[in-house]
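FAQ: What does a ligand-bound record look like?

Like this one, built around IPE:
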Amino acid sequence: MNKERIILKLGGSVITDKSSGDCRVNRPVLERIAGELSSREGIVPLIVHGAGSCGHPEAKEHHLDKGLDHTNKAGVFITHRAVCNLNYEVVNALRASGVEAVGIHPLDACTAKNGRLISFDCKPVELLVQNGIIPVLHGDVVMDVGQGACIVSGDQLISFLAGNMAVDRIGLATDVAGVFDPDGNVIRHINKRSAGSLEIRGSGSTDVTGGMRGKINELLLLAETGVESELFHVSRVSDFLDGRDNGGTLVSP
Ligand code: IPE
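The answer part, i.e. the structure of the complex:
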């Protein structure tokens, strides 16, 4: 039986306490997700995670989303350290559940131009997956040929991976059930046409990558390449992994 290859993004808001100004990792959630991944034989996951309170505040304080100047060079190290520490926690939680996982850091291998990824050699990621080792990537500060440095979100990484590797399904676990309409109901399906008229609420906490609007824009770009993705509440990860209805929002071409 061919195993299904799945990209699972763990939003920073679910693996950290994003309401806190300081980095606070949500270990119980990480442990639960690690347990769910360890018990599934039929899938090969690639994990991408966001930064939450372990990266967004640092990136904002050093205004790295606006690029590099003579005042904020130390922000590259400080922001990268914050997300790498979080990555270490995610990898450790997976390994503690028996999932063979290793961290991959975008700063080491990616190049961007004005905030958009222009190169990333996916071959090591592909070889890890082929050898049964789960790569765990994350949103990161990335060097940028246009503006010195920028912040590449986990969502943008997903688009890049999906454009350069064979992937069967993509899911984003978040702290909300999906994208809501003005009446508070989950919009079950978004595409380019319907997205134009949507009013999407911004994120209440520090977010240098555009919150829910940034996420949906990224997923719509991905959809334009013919790849659909699903956004759902973190409590529905099992449903997503098993291919059941997860009550969330499908973003399609
Ligand atoms: C942000 O990544 C990366 C940094 C701020 C360094 P994401 O934009 O994917 O993070 P979340 O999921 O919104 O927290």
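Follow-up question: can I read anything off the structure? Yes, for example: The first strand starts at residue 4 and ends at 10.
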